[in-house]
Amino acid sequence: MNELKPCPFCGGKAEIQQFANPQNYYCVRCTDCGCSTDGYRRSKTESTEAENKAANAAAWNRRTEPENVEEVSRRYQAECNYDHAVEDRDALRAELEQLKPENKALTVEQLRKMDGEPVWIVLLNIAKPVSCEIITEVCKDGIRTVGANGNDYASFSLYEKTWLSYAHKPEGSGNL
User: Where in the chain is the domain with CATH 2.30.30?
Assistant: First the structure.
């Protein structure tokens, strides 16, 4: 049987492995990255174990061997490097953060146009959690809302004094 060439993807050591199910089925697998041949028998009835191993080794060795295994291995590991994945993830998060709409407190004029829309209500100087409520009616002097705690009314004359509202959940407001 021919000696097995290194893995063409990572340069790792290859070995012949027998399948657990059919008799005389073998494959060649890289011990580092797991890449393998499909595995087969040379002949269903007449081939010997040695012939099947040799046929799988020949199939593995037909694969193109890189001219510089160390260079290919270095590039492969660089592409799979966890640090790159973390850097890419962090860069993507930074880009997404820039695309998020700014979540400033709504103005009274904006609230007047939000009938039927959800808003996040923040009560000022009161230790109550932020709540998401639906504006059910816009009145001349305030809004009627419905939320998890039932119906409520918020007066425009008290806006920015005792309460604020946002189109999106304010950051740092915790879980609901």
Answer: 108-166
pLDDT by residue for the chain (176 residues), tens digit each?
Answer: 568 988 877 788 999 888 766 666 778 888 888 888 776 666 666 677 788 788 878 888 875 555 566 666 666 666 665 555 667 777 777 777 777 677 899 999 999 999 989 999 999 988 888 888 999 999 999 999 998 888 899 999 999 999 999 988 887 665 54
- Joined tokens for residue 58: 């020949």
Here the tokens at position 86 are 């973390």
Tokens of 1: 């049987």
> How is the chain split among helix, strand and coil, in percent rounded to 5?
30, 25, 45
Q: Which CATH class is domain 108-166?
A: mainly beta
What are the residue ranges of helices labelled H in 45-115? 49-61, 69-79, 82-99, 108-112
User: What is the model's pTM?
Assistant: 0.44
